[in-house]
């Protein structure tokens, strides 16, 4: 439940306050019950009790109506020394909407990085462009590097947001307030010694139509085909390269997706073609405080390709060389096939890259998609409304309309998901039920459903995008039982789990349908191999935060040992090892029995594949706040 404080609204509604009592009593540590009624947007909600401890007030057991038996909660709602108390309660909270800053990609560059890219790029000459200068973090450094902000510097910044542009202009360099793609025309192509900056990361759906149209036209002109997946940083990067004179330098802060996402493959090819030298600088720690976005620095020199590519890694921004020289000593990496291979491979040794390539060229492994197809889980439209605990379903009289559900990967512990697992989770009151109302069932014929639907409408659940486009907003489409589940978000390695229950899953977990040649347990066992684990690291994408994500298409394309070779004994042992938290033991067994004994892989080749998984997993795990600790029992 989301609770907001609002003094004025509170007074208007005449909600009970705690201020007077608190002034008298000071710090009270024993629970104090303050029966009161708080206003939601559309309805009155009862708060069962307010508990005050150590100058903090917690709302406990917020009861939206008397039929609803919420688990006792203790949610911080106020500080009695400073505030009158009010709480606006949302019973079915939606995920937090992105902030306006996020929508315009307004995350600014830390000073050490701004200084480094400004120094490195402006070494190429004084005509420098900052295409999305924000409040001028990079422009300020440029002014320093170019020896002051006098007209001789010939640097210019462009910024869409007038308030930010005004702040940027305070650094003395000229700033144009404009949509960069409207400003950037033929006259600017090839006109700069350097382009430097941190372009906005904005998803397709959040761009304005006119900016997107201009940006896409630029990409088309450069021979690239943008799509709905194209993020704003891609056309900014293309424009930055086109703005350079031969020998000019580009230095950009880009999301690490550059290295790994399929939709950036064309851009990777473009960069290798149009640059003579290209260095990717990555960091072992996340650069942007509070944002789980992993970034890299792209440093390039315009010239005839294919570029010599280098990859260097620093601990953090403080380790960046102050000389502006970077990677001179690092040898260029072996050429990758940019149309098919992700730049994640630049984090590998040449012999590891060769081991991965050999699998493909020798054709010794099939693909997961040969024996099964992977699909997303159910998109409910508002999990807090549609996913229920058994207690909630019972209290609301909705049990007859629910189906069992896997809503979190933590529910999947072994190789098999069984009725026993489901019962345990029900006893723990997890949200392991999905409200699955047939589209043709009218709430008018089912009083419990009618009450719940009405409550949802009071809370505006029906106005969420996914619900609003349904014929009957309360009826979740595409509820089917998969043969197996597959983790979408991975901590350690990919996992397929045979579904021995009637459960379906939400879209936090993929659903797998078998084609019929192999059983779910055979598939789940085969996936637990060094081969599949290694490829998942190069085929999936890791965002900052240490999680690897596999989309259905990527999962279908994962190589795996032949699942037909898995016998029942191996599957049972792997299930036990996984439940005991011994992932390495499970992989050792599958590698030995399938890859080496049955398929004839050399143990050294298997060891190289295992090292690919280990190195890339540890690399992404270092970016997690939690660090690279294994979880037990294994959750992937
Ligand atoms: C990630 S911030 C970076 C700001 C600055 N370059 C820095 O490194 O601190 C991106 C900036 O791009 C601006 N922006 C977004 N779309 C733009 C466009 N079409 N043209 C120019 N600027 C844009 C945003 O307003 C935001 O200030």
Protein architecture, described:
By secondary structure, the protein is of the alpha/beta class. The protein folds into three domains: 7-84, no CATH class; 102-347, Rossmann fold (3-Layer(aba) Sandwich); 372-436 and 476-621, no CATH class. 33% of the residues lie in helices and 20% in strands. The protein has 24 helices and 28 strands. The strands form seven sheets. It has an eight-stranded mixed β-sheet with strand order 9-8-7-10-11-13-12-14, sandwiched between helices. Strand 7 (128-130), helix 5 (137-145) and strand 8 form a beta-alpha-beta unit. Helix 20 (530-539) crosses helix 24 (603-621). The longest helix has 19 residues, at 603-621. S-adenosylmethionine is lined by residues 104-109, 132-134, 137-138, 158-161, 164, 179-181, 197-198, 200, 211. The site of S-adenosylmethionine (SAM) has 23 residues, from helix 5, strand 8 and helix 7.
């Amino acid at each position: 439940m989301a609770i907001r404080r609002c003094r004025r609204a509170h007074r208007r509604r005449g909600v009970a306050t705690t201020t007077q009592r608190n002034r008298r009593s000071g710090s009270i540590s024993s629970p104090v019950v303050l029966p009161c009624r708080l206003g939601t947007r559309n309805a009155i909600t009862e708060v069962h009790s307010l508990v005050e401890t150590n100058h903090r007030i917690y709302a406990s057991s917020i009861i939206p109506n008397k039929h609803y038996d919420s688990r006792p909660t203790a949610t911080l709602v106020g500080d009695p020394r400073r505030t009158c108390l009010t709480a606006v309660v949302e019973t079915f909270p939606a995920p937090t909407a992105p902030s306006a800053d996020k929508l315009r990609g307004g995350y600014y560059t830390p000073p050490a990085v701004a200084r480094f890219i400004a120094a490195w790029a402006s070494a190429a000459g004084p005509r420098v462009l900052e295409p999305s200068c924000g409040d001028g973090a990079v422009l300020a450094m440029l002014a320093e590097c170019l020896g002051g902000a006098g007209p001789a510097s010939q640097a210019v910044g462009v910024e869409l947001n007038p308030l930010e542009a005004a702040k940027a202009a305070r650094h003395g360099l000229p700033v144009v307030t404009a949509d960069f793609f409207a400003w950037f025309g033929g006259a600017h192509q090839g006109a700069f010694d350097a382009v430097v900056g941190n372009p906005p990361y904005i998803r397709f759906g959040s761009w304005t139509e006119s900016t997107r149209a201009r940006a896409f036209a630029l990409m088309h002109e450069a021979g690239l085909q943008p799509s709905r997946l194209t993020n704003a940083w891609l056309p900014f990067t293309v424009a930055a390269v086109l703005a350079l004179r031969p020998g000019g330098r580009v230095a950009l802060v880009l999301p690490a997706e550059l290295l790994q996402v399929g939709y950036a493959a064309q851009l990777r090819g473009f960069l290798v073609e149009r640059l003579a030298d290209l260095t990717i600088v990555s960091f072992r720690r996340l650069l942007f405080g509070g944002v789980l976005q992993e970034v890299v620095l792209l440093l390039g020199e315009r010239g005839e390709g294919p570029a010599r590519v280098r990859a260097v890694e620093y601990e953090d921004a403080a380790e960046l060389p102050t000389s502006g020289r970077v990677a001179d000593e690092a040898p260029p990496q072996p050429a990758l096939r940019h149309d098919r291979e992700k730049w994640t491979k630049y984090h590998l040794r040449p012999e590891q890259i060769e081991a991965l390539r050999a699998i493909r060229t020798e054709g010794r492994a099939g693909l997961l998609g040969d024996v099964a197809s992977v699909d997303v889980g159910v998109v409910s439209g508002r999990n807090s409304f549609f996913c229920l605990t058994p207690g909630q379903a019972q209290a609301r009289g909705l049990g007859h309309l629910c189906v069992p559900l896997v809503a979190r990967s933590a529910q999947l512990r072994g190789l098999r998901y069984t009725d026993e697992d489901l019962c345990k989770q029900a006893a723990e009151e997890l949200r392991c039920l999905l409200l699955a109302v047939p589209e043709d069932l009218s709430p008018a014929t089912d009083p419990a459903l009618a009450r719940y639907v009405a409550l949802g409408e009071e809370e505006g659940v029906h106005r969420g995008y996914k619900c609003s486009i349904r014929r009957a907003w309360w009826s979740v489409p595409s509820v089917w039982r998969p043969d197996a589940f597959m983790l979408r978000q991975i901590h350690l390695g990919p996992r397929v789990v045979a579904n021995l229950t009637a459960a379906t899953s939400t879209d936090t977990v993929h659903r797998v349908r078998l084609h019929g040649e192999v059983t779910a347990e055979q598939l789940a066992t085969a996936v637990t191999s060094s081969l599949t684990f290694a490829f998942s690291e190069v085929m999936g994408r890791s965002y900052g935060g240490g999680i690897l994500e596999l989309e259905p298409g990527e999962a279908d394309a994962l190589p795996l040992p032949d699942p037909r070779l898995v016998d029942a004994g191996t599957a049972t042992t792997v299930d036990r090892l996984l439940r005991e938290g011994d992932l390495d033991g499970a992989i050792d067994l599958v590698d030995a029995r399938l890859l080496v004994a049955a398929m004839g892989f050399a143990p050294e080749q298997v060891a190289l594949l295992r090292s690919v998984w280990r190195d890339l997993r540890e690399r992404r795990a270092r970016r997690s706040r939690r660090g690279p600790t294994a979880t037990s029992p294994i959750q992937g």
